[in-house]
Amino acid sequence: MSAVTAAPAQVGSDQRAVRRRPRRLAGRALLTWIAEHALLLALAVVFVSPVVFVVFTSVMHSNQALTGDLVPRSLELGNYVRIFSEAPLATWYGNTVLYAVLSTAFMLVASVPAGYALAKLRFRGSNVIFLAIVVAMLLPPQVTAVPVYVMWSELGLTGSLWPLILPNLLGDAFSVFLIRQFFLTIPTDFANAARMDGASEWGVLWRVMIPMARPGIAAAAIFLFFRSWNDYYGPLLYASENQAAWPVAYGLATYRGIHGTDWAGTMALTVVVLVPVVVVFFLAQKVFVEGIALSGVKG
Question: Which residues cross the membrane (predicted)?
Fold first, then answer.
């Protein structure tokens, strides 16, 4: 009789052990995954923590901001409403979009042909020109700030963003470098085949090379767009005396100086300034990463 009653108990014990085994395996797999990605998780915490801090502070009451409390006691969404009345955000955004979009478009017009010529055309002095471009990348803008400012002042363009936009018609050193590196990854046989079919160099560039180099060109465009959107030094130098020409980066710094300890409002304005950049990055993340990865394959 005892053997008969022991058999069902043994069966039940085996069934519970079988049910617990997948849980143990899942827990072991989770620990293994955490161990393998510990460094990436630590870096993610380091980079995400400031963003979380800014967002949390932006919805705090002014008396709670930058105290020992890390989580808001109540959501003060009125901070976002208030900054729209305290700062001319529409003007700042309009100036920033004008600055970033025109700079990027002008850069592409000049830098794409330059990168193609340095990558696929052989002519005397090409290596010297490429070396000059690399040197221009390493040259701090502060070195040439005074003579360049005097030049734009003589032309009557100070007090606006045009001294920052128009130079892109001559190309951007980093963009030319990046686009050239991407063009080098494209086999020359495609260009030679197009030439044999009677295409001119402009035809080869427009119909063959640019479609194949879209990731690299997009990466260069995104880089310059972000740099223009976040630029503070340039507007400080050329547009600081004209409030109607301020972009969001300079406007944010000015807002911080005027409102002093209003950290909740400052953080709310920071979030509003960051949102368009974050949206653009996530929409173009795939082509951006692809362009950066492939641009460094060949030198």
Answer: 29-56, 97-116, 128-152, 164-183, 204-226, 263-284
d(CA 264, CA 66): 9
Q: How far is 241 from 82, CA to CA, in rounded Å? A: 25
Domain range list for the chain: 28-79, 88-296
The per-residue pLDDT for range 251-264, each reduced to its tens digit, is 999 988 887 778 88
Q: How many Å separate Cα 227 from the centre of its chain?
A: 8
Is the CATH number of domain 88-296 1.10.10.10? no
What is residue 1's three-state secondary structure? coil
Q: 288 near 218, Cβ under 8 Å?
A: yes
How many CB atoms neighbour CB 100 within 10 A?
24
What pLDDT digit, counting tens, does each position of 40-99 carry?
888 888 888 888 888 888 888 878 877 777 788 888 888 898 888 888 999 999 999 999
Q: Distance (Å, rounded) from C-alpha 63 to C-alpha 69? A: 11
Q: Please check whether residue 184 is in contact with residue 299, taking contact to mean a CB–CB distance below 8 angstroms.
A: yes
Tokens 């989580």 locate to 71
Pair 175, 107: CB distance under 8 Å: yes
Structure confidence at residue 299 (pLDDT):
45
